[in-house]
Amino acid sequence: MNDPLEKLALLEVPEPPAEFDRQLHRRLNQRLIVQHMADLLLRAMPWAILEMARAVLGLFGFTLTGRFDDERRPKGPDV
What we know:
Helix content: 55-70%
Shape: elongated
């Protein structure tokens, strides 16, 4: 009986409290909401604002110059 695992196997394990599942889900849901809001505010919103700013700047550039600068098109002497 020197093995700690055998000693643990002999111990009585009490039943969890009646509200255990509800409390666990409540705490988990609160943390998930905080994580999702932080992800939205710190990662998604700055990216969306940057993309929107690029589109607006492109619109202003097209309005002022009358040319659309396509970044995908290769630029060279024959273009």
